[in-house]
Design brief:
single chain, mainly beta, five-stranded mixed beta sheet, 1 helix
Length: 68
């Protein structure tokens, strides 16, 4: 079975945790619908991968934010 190619994702709701203007782009080979862990500015976060095309080859990802 061939390995899934990595795709490039852009976080669409980065301002929720990192303020306006923060662009978070990363690559992942996980399928859409997966939640992946990554580190942004030294901070661990989780992002939901979507199959929503944004522009070019970028797909959308959303930070998973929990408020307690």
């Amino acid at each position: 079975m061939a390995a899934r190619p990595a795709r490039t994702y852009l976080v669409t709701n980065s301002s929720v945790l990192f303020g306006p203007g923060r662009r978070i782009e990363f690559r992942s080979a996980a399928p859409a619908g997966s939640v992946v862990s990554l580190e942004v500015d030294g901070r661990p976060v989780r992002a939901l991968l979507t199959d929503t095309p944004l522009f070019g080859d970028l797909l959308g990802a959303e930070l998973q934010v929990r408020y307690l």
